[in-house]
Write a structure and sequence with these properties.
Elements: H1 5-36, E1 41-49, H2 55-64, H3 71-81, E2 90-96, H4 100-109, E3 114-118, H5 125-136, H6 140-147, H7 152-156, E4 171-175, H8 180-194, H9 197-206, H10 210-223, H11 230-242, H12 250-257, H13 266-271, H14 295-302, E5 311-314, E6 320-323, H15 326-355
Antiparallel strand pairs: 1-2, 3-4, 5-6
Helix pairs in contact: 1-3, 2-3, 5-6, 10-11, 10-14, 11-14
Length: about 350
C-alpha cells in the first residue's frame, strides 16, 4: 500500500531541505577553510561586472578567472544569502581563494576598484579641464565648456562668478568609467565641505564674504611657494585692504593677461589697465578667484599673521622679503635682483661647463 500524496510531498520537502542545508554547510565550510588555510593568494585579479549581469554570469566569470573554485557551491551560497539580485555593476579586484563572504560583500556593497585623480592647488579652469579630460577620456574642449563661463556657478550653487576657484584641489578616487560631470560634482562638493563651521565663524568675524575670502585665498595660493609664508602674505593683503591701498598683486594681472609670463613688465600691466582683475589700477579685491586655492591658502586668508608688513618681494628660493615701507621694499628689491642675477650666472656657467665636456653636442 503506497504513501498518501500529502505524506510523500512532506517527505520530499524534508529531503530537499536537508540537501540544501547540507549544501550550504559545505559551502560555508569551504569558504571558511579557504580563509583558514592562509586566505587569498597571488596578485589581485580584476573582474568587470556589467550592468544587469546575472548571478550565474558573475559566478562563471569568477570561476573562469580562478578566483572561485566551485561554480555550484558559490552560486548556491550566494542564492542562500539572498544576494542574487543585489550584485552591483563595476570593476572589482579579488585574489584566488578569496573568501566567498568577502567577495559577495564587495559585490553587493559595490566596493569597486578606484583610481586616484589629483588636482594640485592653484590651477585655473583650463588646466583643470585638461586634467579631467585626460582622466575621463572626454575632449578637453567639451570639459572646459561645462565649467567655463561667468554664470556656470548658478547651476552648482557656489558664489561665483563662474566656477573659477570652486573646483577644490585635492586627490580624489573614482571608479573606472566616471564622466566629467561626476568629477565636477565631487570637486564642488569637496569645496562645500571645506567651509566648516569654524571657518564660517571666522569669516563672519572678519566681515568678509565667501567670494572675498576665496578670492584672497587664490591670490595667496598664487604668490606663495612655501606654506609657512602664506599667513604673512595674507597679512600683507589684509593690511593693504584695511588702508585702502591697491593690492598690486602680480598674479591678478597675469590672470587678466591670460596666463603666466616669465617677466611682468609695466607695459603689460598698462595693456590691461581697464581689466577688473588688474589690482594695480582697480582698488580692493578682484571680482572673484584667479585659481583654485587649497586648505592652507584658505586658512591663511582667514587667519593672517599678526604683522604690519605692506610689501614683499620674491627671492630665487621661493621665499620672500617682507617689509614695512616703500623705502625698505626698494632696498629689498635690489637685494632680490642681485640674488636672481647670481642664479642666472650660475645657470650660464653650468651650461657652458656642460657644453665643454668631451663628446657633448656643440
Amino acid at each position: 500500500m503506497g504513501r498518501r500524496p500529502d505524506a510523500a510531498r512532506a517527505a520530499y520537502a524534508r529531503a530537499a531541505y536537508a540537501r540544501a542545508a547540507c549544501s550550504l554547510a559545505i559551502c560555508a565550510l569551504a569558504s571558511s577553510m579557504l580563509v583558514a588555510c592562509g586566505g587569498p593568494q597571488g596578485e589581485p585579479l580584476t573582474v568587470t561586472v556589467p550592468r544587469g549581469a546575472t548571478l550565474q554570469s558573475v559566478t562563471d566569470t569568477l570561476v573562469a578567472r580562478g578566483i572561485v573554485g566551485s561554480r555550484g557551491g558559490f552560486y548556491y551560497f550566494a542564492k542562500a544569502r539572498g544576494d542574487a539580485r543585489e550584485i552591483r555593476a563595476g570593476r572589482y579586484a579579488f585574489r584566488a581563494g578569496e573568501g566567498w563572504r568577502n567577495i559577495l560583500d564587495d559585490l553587493t556593497v559595490g566596493r569597486v576598484l578606484t583610481v586616484p585623480f589629483t588636482v594640485p592647488e592653484g590651477l585655473r579652469l583650463p588646466e583643470i579641464a585638461e586634467r579631467i579630460a585626460g582622466f575621463t577620456g572626454e575632449p578637453a574642449a567639451d570639459v572646459l565648456g561645462r565649467i567655463d563661463g561667468d554664470s556656470t556657478h548658478l547651476a552648482w550653487n557656489v558664489p561665483g562668478p563662474g566656477l573659477e576657484g570652486y573646483l577644490f584641489p585635492d586627490t580624489y578616487r573614482f571608479a573606472h568609467g566616471v564622466d566629467a560631470r561626476q568629477v565636477i560634482a565631487v570637486m564642488i562638493e569637496r569645496y562645500r565641505s571645506a567651509w566648516t563651521d569654524e571657518r564660517r565663524a571666522r569669516l563672519e568675524e572678519l566681515g568678509m564674504t565667501e567670494v572675498e575670502a576665496m578670492t584672497l585665498a587664490s591670490i595667496v595660493q598664487a604668490e606663495a611657494r612655501h606654506f609657512e609664508e602664506m599667513p604673512t602674505i595674507a597679512a600683507v593683503y589684509h593690511n593693504r585692504l584695511e588702508i585702502r591701498y591697491p593690492l598690486q598683486a602680480d598674479p591678478t594681472v597675469l590672470y587678466a593677461l591670460g596666463g603666466w609670463r616669465e617677466r611682468l613688465l609695466f607695459a603689460a600691466i598698462d595693456s590691461v589697465a581697464d581689466h577688473p582683475y588688474n589690482t594695480y589700477t582697480h582698488p580692493g579685491l578682484p571680482p572673484g578667484p584667479i585659481g583654485a586655492p587649497g586648505d592652507a591658502a584658505l586658512d591663511a586668508a582667514l587667519n593672517p599673521a599678526d604683522v604690519e608688513f605692506l610689501y614683499f618681494v620674491a627671492r630665487p628660493d621661493g621665499t620672500h622679503i617682507f617689509t614695512l615701507s616703500l623705502q625698505e621694499h626698494n632696498t629689498a628689491r635690489v637685494t632680490a635682483r642681485r640674488e636672481w642675477a647670481e642664479v642666472r650666472r650660475d645657470a650660464v656657467r653650468q651650461a657652458d661647463s656642460a657644453s665643454a665636456k668631451p663628446g657633448s653636442l656643440p
